[in-house]
Amino acid sequence: MVFTGRHHGLTLPAGLGDTGHQYAHLFDIYVPIALGVWVAITLAVGVALFRYRRRPGRAPSGRHTATRLEASYAVVLACTVAALLYLTFTTEDEVDALPRKPGLVVHVTGAMWNWRFDYPAYGISIVAGTVRPGTLYVPTRTEVLLELRSIDVVHSLWVPATRIKKDVFPGAEEELGLKFPRAGTFRGVCAEFCGTHHADMTFSVRALPPARFRQWAERNRGLRQGESA
Amino acid sequence: MRRAAIPLLIYGAFIAGNATMLWIWGEDAVNVGAFYFAVIVTWLVALGFAAAHWKQPDGEALRERPDLTRRALPDLSFGAGITGIAIVTMVYGARFGLFLVWIGGGLLLLGFARLAAELGSQRRDSRRHVEEGRARAGIDAEDVPP
Amino acid sequence: MSTIAARRRAPSWTGVIGATDHKVLGRNMLIAAFAFFIAGGVFALLMRLELAQPGMQLMARDSYDELFTMHGSTMVYLFVTPLALALGVYLVPLQIGAADISAPRVANIGFWLYVGGGLTMESGWLTDIGPGRAGWFSAYPLSGSDATPGFGMDLWVLGVILATAGVGLVGACLLGTIMRRRAPGMTMLRMPVFTWTELVTCLMVIGAFPVLILVMVLLYLDRQGVHVFQGFNGAIDYQQLFWFYGHPVVYVMFFPFFGAAAEAIAVGAGRRWFGYEASALSLLAFTALSMSVWAHHMFTTGGVHNAYFSLTSTALVVPAGIEYLGMLGTLVGGAIVFRTSFLFALAFFIQFLIGGLSGIFVASPPLDYHAQDSYIVVAHFHYTLFAGSIFGFFAGVYHWFPKAFGVRLREGLGKLQLALMVVGTNLTFLPMFFLGQEGMPRRVATYPASTGWGTLNVLETVGAFVIASGVLVFVVNVLSSLRSHVAAGPDPWDGHTLEWATSSPPPRHNFELLPPVRSYAPLLDLKQSGEWPRARRPEEALA
Question: Which of C82, C91, C157, C230 is most buried (most C-beta within 10 Å)?
Answer without folding.
Answer: C82
